[in-house]
Design goal:
Blueprint: H1 2-18, H2 38-44, H3 47-50, E1 54-55, E2 67-73, H4 75-96, E3 100-106, H5 112-124, E4 129-132, H6 139-144, E5 151-154, E6 169-171, H7 176-183, E7 191-195, H8 199-211, E8 217-220, H9 229-232, E9 241-245, H10 248-260, E10 267-270, H11 278-282, E11 291-295, H12 302-310, H13 319-333, E12 343-345, E13 348-350, E14 354-359, E15 362-365
Parallel strand pairs: 2-3, 2-4, 4-5, 5-6, 7-8, 7-9, 9-10, 10-11
Antiparallel strand pairs: 1-3, 11-14, 12-13, 14-15
Helix pairs in contact: 4-12, 4-13
Length: 367
């Protein structure tokens, strides 16, 4: 028996030694960025020197055909996206069998000094391909820093939302304008919007109201609000085009409350904001009978999708991961293999929004 145990232990040891090396992505704990002073941010900036590059075991500094990629991000703002995006990149490299060197630069916040230092450090260390996971809030600053000789992919920014362009940048953000325009193929003249204030929803609200000159009823759903009786029980919602500019939890409650109070909009519309499988567990089929969503994520090769899922990322429902996939594929070979169907034209990812309904089996595209 003891020989059998010894044999098993030795076998497990060698299996462990030969298995794929796992890389732990360390994301700084979230802090309230409003409480961080300039001095503190500069001190935090030394974290660049503490982050080891993530290197495939077979890669050395002298290898010429190595894909070198810098990933720059502010963890206090995009922590929930950063790890998944990095995992998407690692999964892509694995799927393609690419020798690579990937280094992360955490700027903590979107402080301009830290952003400038991160780009300078990446450039000095020979990283010419960069994925920069910054929000559109700092895009104007990013446009003016020295990026000569660099190719920079911005997963969160769409060219429609900016006035000045940088030829070194590829803009990967989805177009909510295109989604809203597509959704309003189902609109009638009685338009109502429920919204919850945030940077993203405010942007969508402006698109809804300004671009399409819609002056219908707009009602705010406050973050702390859990009872919507006064809002839902409004005769103006009856037979309306109800646009839900709210996150998934609020949307689910609204859908169920509408049915509970027997309020029947003609159609209920929403953007990518609610393209989330949780909608099926949070609502009943009857709550979603006239619910239509827009989605700009395209289909992904099954083997690639499985590899990405194995690494803990999601290119089916998470559009930031999908945008990151489009970006790393373009930075690697400009999609010469045709692996990704989503095109890039004039430095902008060209997403094609599709309209979906929900069934008891999942999402179904409206043809």
């Amino acid at each position: 028996m003891k020989y059998l145990i010894s044999f098993l232990l030795i076998t497990l040891f060698f299996v462990g030694c030969s298995s794929k090396k796992e890389v732990e992505i360390k994301i700084s704990a979230k802090k309230d960025i409003d409480t961080i002073s300039k001095k503190e941010q500069i001190t935090y900036n030394t974290i660049y020197n503490d982050i080891d590059p993530f290197i495939d075991g077979s890669v050395t500094e002298d290898t010429k055909d190595v894909m070198k990629l810098a990933f720059i991000y502010p963890s206090n703002i995009v922590a929930k996206y950063a790890k998944s995006s990095i995992n998407t990149v690692l999964a892509y490299f694995d799927y393609k069998g690419i020798k690579y060197k990937l280094k992360t630069f955490d700027t903590l916040s979107e402080d301009e000094i830290n952003i400038q230092k991160a780009f300078n450090s990446a450039k000095e260390e020979g990283y010419t391909n960069i994925i920069a996971l910054f929000t559109p809030r700092v895009i104007e600053f990013l446009q003016i820093i020295d990026t000569n000789g660099l190719k920079v992919y911005l997963p969160l920014t769409n060219k429609q939302n900016i006035t000045n362009y940088n030829n070194n940048f590829i803009y990967g953000g989805i177009s909510y304008k295109d989604q809203v325009k597509k959704l309003f193929e189902f609109s009638n003249t009685n338009n109502v919007m429920f919204y919850q204030k945030s940077f993203l929803t405010n942007n969508i609200k402006n698109i809804y109201q300004s671009v399409f000159s819609i002056n219908g009823l707009s009602l705010e759903i406050k973050k702390e609000e859990n009872s919507y009786e006064d809002i839902i029980d409004d005769l103006r919602i009856e037979d309306s085009t109800l646009f839900l500019n709210t996150p998934i939890i609020k949307t689910s409650i609204i859908l169920s409350q509408l049915r509970a109070y027997e309020i029947h909009p003609k159609v209920i519309l929403s953007t990518q904001l609610n393209y989330n499988p949780r909608i099926f567990s949070l609502t009943q089929v009857r709550d979603r009978l006239n619910f239509i969503l827009a989605n700009s994520i395209d289909k992904v090769d099954d083997n690639l999708k499985d590899t990405i899922s194995f690494y803990g990322a999601d290119v089916i429902y998470n559009w930031v991961d999908y945008s990151t996939l489009v970006g790393v594929n373009y930075l690697y070979d400009q999609n010469s293999s045709g692996l990704i169907s989503t095109r890039i034209e004039k430095n902008q990812v060209m997403y094609e929004p599709k309209l979906l309904i929900t069934t008891s089996y999942g999402f179904l595209e409206i043809k």
